[in-house]
Amino acid sequence: MASANPSWSEKDFSCSICHDVFSSPVSTPCGHNFCRTCITKFWEDKVQYKCPLCNKIFNPRPELQVNTFILEMVHQFKRSVRVKEQPCVEPGEIPCDVCTGTQLKAVKSCLECFISYCHTHLEPHQRVSGLKRHLLVDPLDRLEDRVCKKHGRLLELFCQTDQVCVCVLCTVMDHKSHPVVPLKEEYEEKASQLWKIQADIQQMIQERQQKIQEIKDTVDLSKADADREIADGLQVLTGLMRCIEKWQEDFIQTVGEKLKSTEKEAEGLLKELEQEVEDLTNRCLEVKQLSHTEDHRLLQQTFRSLKDPPPTRDWTTVEVRPPSYVGTLRRSLDQLEESLNMEMIKLRDAELKRVQQYKVDVTLDPDTAHPSLILSEDGKQVHHGGGRKKLPDNPKRFMKGANVLTKQSFSFGRFYFEVQVKGKTGWWVGVARESVNREGVITTTPDNGYWTIVFYNNELKFNDNLAVRLPVRAELQKVGVFVDYDVGLVSFYDVEARVHLYSATECTFTEPLYPFLCPCLHKAGKNSSPLIISPVNQID
Q: What percent of the chain has pLDDT over 70?
């Protein structure tokens, strides 16, 4: 049997009267094809019967028979077009429940019939009035799950009490007193919530992406810092090694020169001694020969010249003293130490300069100041006033110790500030966490939230459970405080001398830190000088 050519179009199977695909195609005697209905209506009320295409006249009116060949070709064409327009179901798609053989992709699911339809099998729902009232939705899988297993009715409502889908009969039985809304209404509510959830998740994703970038930036910055630190360190260490090599060469040269001088002196003496030994040996031979002669006259003639030994040095007082190397190594090490001290000064300068780049501008908070303290208007200076002012109650205020915090706090990263302590006989400087005790007895140790150094009774120490005594520096005029919150480090510096005083390491910070100052008691004017938060002037 002939088959429809897949390259044919709808035009090849269209009636020239209605311009639609043939319906019951018939052929005229002239060989043209038309729909039976079309040609019949065309000839109605006509006197002559002629072909609509070639105008050939037929007399009498011809008997028209269905062209079975054209009809079969039209059927095959329609089937090929329908298959082409309705692709077979792909994995993950919903198949038509009515198709037999090759299943086509469903385009709608009916929530009344609980069946999914392809284009072809959906046609009755678009034509039959009773089926038109059915609720059609985009294709859904497992339609049986959308039916109440107890009542066999569609789950079209939602119980807000039990948070489950219910049918109409459920609302008058098991869920009678529960608030129930249409499933579509609950869907819209949940959909709006999903938008918010999606937005929240997107925000979380964005925050984490930012955190990822922050971590990557931190790693890159750390690598740059490490590279710079290694480069600076190698430069210093290379210089130190050159110094050590130089002083090693100088030490070896000094010892060698002393040895060379001794060897030269000994060489001269040995040469002179060997010459005298040679002269004496020759004289001994002459005397020996003369002692064996029997010539009386010769003996008399030469005896006078041989009886006295040749002139020689008195060697009893002559000695070669070994060189003394005592102090040679020490003097070399003293010179090396001097060079190392110069390098240490450079290192201290570099370290202080590095921490000073994290300088912060802080001012004292009058709400935290003890009633006996007097603050300057700019909040940069504090001293003990010798008396106690009446101030309004404030939970932030220190009531026992003469302490004060700054307005600014820090809960991440690094910061550095400097406090002038010149002219004072007692003071405390450091940092304190936000939750420190401000009313009872205060013990300023790390366990209680304080990281400070204190100068009192001519003693300088870091205040810990066991105080760490530090070398007293009479010239200490300004203290620098550096904090690396993230690694748990608090370091103190003598700014003027550019000397590192002490570092508290492996500290645990879990809340904001505040710069902390205590000018101590007035002491009848002996300790009246203020503590001053100084601007940081970075060293050149």
A: 95
